[in-house]
Amino acid sequence: MCLFHCPSTNTIESNKVTSNASTSANSVDVQGLPNLPTKHPITVQSSPEQKILELMNAKRTEAGLVPLTIDNTLVQVARYKSNNMIQNNFFNHTNPDGTKWTNWLQTIGYKYTTTGEKLPVQNYFCLPFTIK
User: What is the torsional sign of CA 65, 119, 19, 11?
Assistant: First the structure.
């Protein structure tokens, strides 16, 4: 699961992101969001995230589009979302408490223009994304 940032020269928002999200490569905790239960062990695998980015950018470049970049805050929220689904045994855009991952972005003070979330049926990864 990855989250990407699409740089743009005509955006109102700054491309620089500041938030309370941890950016540790192996952490799924996000400062400001509730700690999740630890019923099931998890492992963060960043190499598939990098491969997805590489493949997406190859296609974007072929199409004449600006390459995407990894946004560490969004990566942490995506990992948190995946862990939340694992620990609480659900697969849905809406969390059992009725919140969505966009509520978490608001809680940590992340500013964005447009956002979306992709939860593929293949159990490989969760791919929410935000375009700045």
Answer: positive
